[in-house]
Amino acid sequence: MEEKTKMDMEEGEEKALTIYFIPYLAPGHMIPLCDIATLFALRRQKVTIITTPSNAQILGKSIPLNQHLRIHTVPFPSHEVGLPDGVESLSAATDLENLRKIFQATTLLQPPIQHFVEQHPPDCIVADFLFPWVDELANKLQIPRLSFNGFSLFAICAIESVKAHSLYESASFVIPGLPHSIAMNAAPPKQMSDLLEALLETVFKSNGIIVNNFSELDGEEYIEHYEKTTGHKAWHLGPASLIRRTVQEKAQRGQQSVVSVHECLSWLDSKPDNSVLYICFGSLCLFPDKQLYEIACGIEASGHKFIWVVPEKKGKEDESEEEKGKWLPKGFEERNIGKKKGLIIRGWAPQVMILSHKALGAFMTHCGWNSTVEAVSAGVPMITWPVHGEQFYNEKLITQVRRIGVVVGAAEWSSTGIGEREKVVGRDSIEKAVRRLMDGGDEAEKIKKYAREFGDKAKHAAQEGGSSHRNLTAVIDDLKILRDRKLRV
Question: Which UniProt keywords apply (predicted)?
């Protein structure tokens, strides 16, 4: 009996797929793709994540490395581009020059990654679309490639429609051809759109795109629209963050938090349910001081409790009172932090843990897809403040299509999240948006109800029998068919 069991296990191992995951070196790309890699490993597929040494250290603390899931490292070309050792992620950029250097360094990763893959060919490669050269590599090795870009499918449909109708110069327009009438009050920067569209062309050459979302949030109408207009397959496998079930697992997702789990939990535990506003604009958005000042004034005027994540350099010991006065009103910390009404986190925060706490009432967000789907998973309504990339499209999905948030009124679509902006969102707009969602009333209650419902749908999608769980089974089965067909040739 024991011998038969051993044979069955060996046969099962032989049937497992060997899959390489190549995440881009930015938290909003790396974290969800590595969580998705973990989903495949939990189904006993042989998964290898290919990344650089510094990122491997971070990932090694937050994903369950075992016989099914391992990390392979390739050197990061720090010296070739003039970066200090250990700076291996776009989130480490403090200015546009460093951002450029890190981006340049990621293009130099092709030779060592390609060498490893050619020496040890897998059954499939899952790569971020910011590594378009993987398409040629997969074709050379005659293996399937799945693409990942960290976007919602709704946003991709919007990008494709804007491209098809060349809507770059209009101050405002309605996106043609979508299942909903989506009115935009800002046009995407032409340079950014050109880059995204070129990268999406490479995506469409792959065997399919993996989406960190669940089909109920994007909607069957957008899945059908995408597949009909592009002829391409989309696999909804998220929300990937839901594999983090314990407080510790949620706290360890991503980089090391600058605030202890105990301190953060104790602060939240002392607050009533649904009473705290969480404010965070992601790892790639660095607002100028004058915008931070308006945020401080707006949230204080709203009268609500808050957790506010600001850039790491803010509030350092060597920050003078004059420097602090540029981004914080005089006495702000004494009135709010000192009286336990607010908590400022300088740097990386345990976002999934914070969002899942019962004290959370709303999330002011830049609408990056990683943050958006984490909020949806937790059933938390949003105050939307898009900045760059595809975030303005995500805002429309949140506020107009699914009605689980309100807008703050941001209208300047930037090429990056770093640097000065022509427009500042004023304190009055910020206070109004916070009150609209946090003060109660019929509109707020409807939005919160829809948010809770989508939170329930997200959890069901990830469970056995749910839509994302079924999609993961289907994509594994399809990849095995492709592999076995190749072996028979």
Answer: Glycosyltransferase, Transferase
